[in-house]
Design a protein that fits this description.
Blueprint lengths: L11 H4 L7 H13 L13 E3 L4 E3 L1 H4 L7 E7 L8 E6 L5 E4 L12 E8 L11 E6 L2 E6 L14 E6 L3 E7 L5 E8 L2 E6 L5 E3 L25 E5 L5 E4 L1 H5 L3 E7 L4 H5 L1 H10 L2 E7 L7 H9 L6 E3 L12 E3 L13 E5 L5 E6 L5
Parallel strand pairs: 6-12, 14-19, 16-17, 17-18
Antiparallel strand pairs: 1-2, 3-4, 4-5, 6-9, 7-8, 7-10, 10-11, 12-13, 14-15, 16-20, 20-21
This protein binds calcium ion (CA) (2 copies).
The site of one calcium ion has 6 residues, from loops.
Length: 362
């Protein structure tokens, strides 16, 4: 909301007519908003609140759902069929589709009770749109309407999910669009069922839980267990070379540290990396992600700290001709999203064991 006393901002696009097909409009707006990922709506991050019974707690940051993207539509549904409602969010730029897995319920724990209910009407329209399902839940009677339309540009899955907390079961009743109220008795926690109008019986549906894997860490396109390819880089002498983790490992495990001279926590952990290298127990290798081709500052920072581990830098874009079996750094690291510092732990054969984001602690 804009306060009425706020100064009016003059934006060129609002004060002069522009043809949306003009090169000015396309190059300015499209480039900034869609291609460069700038915000359409003032960098408002997405918000998530949890109802704790008396109030709402802001879980936006903790949940990881506080995306800076300009989001437009949300669908809440139990996509992995484990009994809690997950979120699918559509945005207009960057990663446009995000599926957020809800880890609120721990399967098998005391508070993991739920009911997943579908309805089928036998009078009027088949889907029973408008049916109101009421469950005697842990906080009393809770009702949900099967509306099928929910949220901007979104639809509702034809399924209602009720949390039961520690209850072993709950009474269920349906108010049908035709005007009748019908009881379906007590359903056990964990039931997935279709409630058919006029039968008073819940038809059980098979559970189809499916695991959603954790996403890859920000900026690293390698999963644990993957082999680190040979990378086209620049060496300490400023000349193109190949970063071959296995050749440098010397039979030891490797810590491949991604850092930048402009990242204070990265520079701060260099002495720790040097002491790990000096211990002889592990091989430390650094790859600076300073501006491609501009590695003087990073090289100076390492020289000032008398580091002895092998250090590499990014080449100028397109400066190195592709070589068989050697890949550009961008194939495994998304520099625009990389969290610094990031340290990739590899075994002596170059297989990824861990990906640590943030400074090392010991
Ligand atoms: Ca779920
Ligand atoms: Ca879950």
């Amino acid at each position: 909301m804009v306060a009425s006393e706020a100064d009016v901002e003059v934006e060129e696009s609002l004060t002069s007519k522009q043809n949306v097909n003009s090169s000015t409009y396309v190059s300015f707006h499209n480039a900034q908003i869609f291609e460069q990922g700038m915000s359409f709506s003032g960098n408002e991050r997405n918000k998530v609140w949890i109802n704790d019974g008396d109030s709402f707690a802001d879980l936006s940051d903790l949940s990881g759902a506080d995306s800076p993207n300009d989001s437009r539509a949300t669908i809440a549904a139990d996509f992995d069929d484990d009994g809690d409602v997950d979120l699918f969010v559509h945005s207009i730029q960057r990663e446009r589709h995000a599926l957020y897995r809800n880890d609120a319920l721990v399967a098998g724990s005391k508070n993991a009770g739920f009911l997943k209910l579908r309805v089928r009407a036998t009078s009027g329209q088949y889907e029973g749109i408008g049916a109101i399902v009421t469950v005697d839940g842990p906080a009393g009677k809770t009702s949900q309407v099967l509306s099928r339309g929910a949220g901007f540009l979104s639809c509702q899955v034809p399924e209602l999910v009720f949390g039961l907390g520690a209850l072993e079961g709950a009474h269920v009743e349906v108010f049908w669009p035709g005007g009748k109220t019908e009881s379906f008795g007590e359903l056990a926690a964990g039931t997935r069922a279709t409630l058919v109008e006029g039968t008073g019986e819940a038809e059980a549906l098979a559970a189809r839980p499916r695991m959603f894997l954790d996403p890859l860490p920000p900026g690293v396109q390698l999963d644990e267990g993957a082999l680190m390819p040979k990378l086209a880089v620049v060496g300490s002498d400023g000349k193109p070379t190949v970063l071959d983790v296995v050749a440098l490992a010397d039979g030891k495990n490797v810590l491949l540290n991604l850092w930048s001279s402009s990242c204070a926590p990265c520079v701060k952990e260099l002495p720790l990396l040097q002491s790990r290298e000096a211990s002889g127990e592990v091989r430390v290798i650094t790859l600076s992600v300073d501006v491609p081709g501009d590695f003087e500052r990073a090289r100076k920072v390492l020289a000032q700290r008398d580091t002895t581990f092998p250090a590499f830098y990014l080449p100028d874009v397109g400066a190195i001709a592709p070589e068989s079996g050697v890949q550009p750094v961008e194939t495994v690291i998304d520099l625009a999203r990389l969290k610094l510092p990031t340290t990739i732990g590899l075994d002596k054969d170059g297989r990824v064991q861990t990906i640590l984001q943030g400074p090392l602690t010991d």
